[in-house]
Amino acid sequence: CHPVPKPESRMEVCDLSPCPPRWKVTPSGPCSSSCGLGLAVQLVTCVQIHQGKEILLEERLCPVAEKPLTSVPCVIRMCSYEWSFSEWTECSTSCGNGIQTRQDFCLNPLTRKHVNPIFCRHFPKAIVVRGCSAGPCPEQALGTGSHGAELQTVTPAAHLTAAAAAKEARYKDLDLPLSAVPAVTQEQAKETSGGEEDTTKSNSPSFWMCFSSVSCCTGVCGNLFLNATGVINMTGVESSDCTVAIGRPLGEEITVSVLQSSLNCSAGEVVLFSGRMMWRTGCRKLPLSLINSRTNTLIVKQRVLVPGNGVILQYNSRTATKKYYQDCDKQLFGPQGEIENPVQLPDQREEVVCRTFINVAPRHRIAIRALSIDLGNESNHTHFNYVLVRDVSTMKTMVFRGKQQFFWQSTGSQAEIEFHE
Asked: Which residue has the higher pLDDT, 385 or 299?
């Protein structure tokens, strides 16, 4: 540019009017949780740039609808939870055989605080019930027998009519294929009725249980719906707390849409949707909601304060997008049925833990009785062979080992059984 005359340098005045007020976000606090989901606090102020300088203004001068949140979700790292236990109680008897129990807790190892047991749901847990001996009773020393709390061993022969009665009392499935329900074969009936013992019988651990349910209330509330689709009208119910359940075979997932809602949100009326892999509560804008349980079972709980209020639901089932169960898992719905394990499947890995899910109507409770248990000769000396029964409503578990027959009752309408071999 040297041959070209150079223009003079000069400055021209530009628009000096202040910029419009805007929100300014300044991080001011760490994440409230050292692991898992927490909240981070941030400082939100209303500012304005004037002649290159930032001026603090009153919040009313900034657009209210655009104000950022003062706290935002944060995750530093995922938590790893673990089971913790109280000390064992004293033996339940002063002599003879009894039991000891201990309380289980789900623990955050970083904070050493107890958290909701659902966080430890899929972590292995040690036993919470074990046998104990307080020494021989005086009657035992005299040879007159014991009045201690010894667990009685019931042999399969003691259930002479179990297989025959099972044909009459067997669980009648309302919607599932018969293949979903274990059956008693003629060979098993022969063994159960005290017939000749098969000397070639496998020494694999085996379990034989039965379950039943007991009713506690009436009406539309407390029902279990097993159809592939349907409409549930929960308006005008007499009870302030109304619970219904929806069940489908494993491999399907349930979706629910709210057709109509007359809940009074300001009065605290609410509806809760809970499944094996989700939970959600709501009141406002329910007719626009679509709830996907992601599994084959769903419980809906409604709480109303004004008689006549409630929701009308429409539910559908479809093939699950992801497989959330194993091939040896079983799904049973009430009112009664039988459970056998192991279930022989082609190419089944030995380390697979088979589960049985039991869901009955919310008005019912579940009772499980072990009829025959054989965990092998070394079952009393190993921690790998046991039956775990979980009460889903409280997330409490009981572990049974050896050849111990047991009777178990639920506090809710859902139970899970794990067969660890």
From this structure: 299
Residue whose C-alpha is closest to residue 45's, from 30, 63, 58: 58
Residue linked to tokens 């913790």: 84
Give the span between the Cα atoms of 246 and 222, in whole angstroms.
Answer: 11
Q: What is the DSSP track for 9-25?
A: P-------PPPPPEEEE
Measured between alpha carbons, how far is 418 from 389 in angstroms, rounded to an integer?
6
Q: Which residues contact 210 (CB under 8 A, 6 or more apart)?
A: 162, 166, 336, 337, 338, 339, 368, 369, 371
Q: Which domains does the chain have, with CATH numbers?
A: 22-76 (no CATH), 82-134 (2.20.100), 224-319 (2.60.120.290), 330-420 (2.60.120.290)
**pLDDT at residue 276 greater than cutoff 50:** yes
- Token digits of residue 62: 């900034």
Asked if 331 and 359 touch (Cβ cutoff 8 Å), the reply is yes
**231 forms bridges with which residues in the sheet?**
314
How far, CA to CA in Å, does 320 sit from each of 104, 252, 278, 290, 393?
Answer: 33, 5, 14, 16, 24
Looking up tokens 């009141």, which residue turns up? 283
Whether the Cβ atoms of residue 107 and residue 113 lie closer than 8 Å to each other: yes
pLDDT in tens, 131-190: 788 888 775 444 433 333 333 323 333 333 333 333 333 333 333 333 333 333 333 333
Question: Using CA of residue 219, residue 220, residue 222, residue 228, what is the dihedral sign?
Answer: positive
- Mean pLDDT value of segment 306-325: 88
Four-point Cα dihedral 270, 274, 277, 283, nearest 10: -20
- Which of 162-171, 253-262, 278-287, 394-403 has maximum average pLDDT? 253-262
Closest C-alpha to 371, from 325, 340, 329: 340
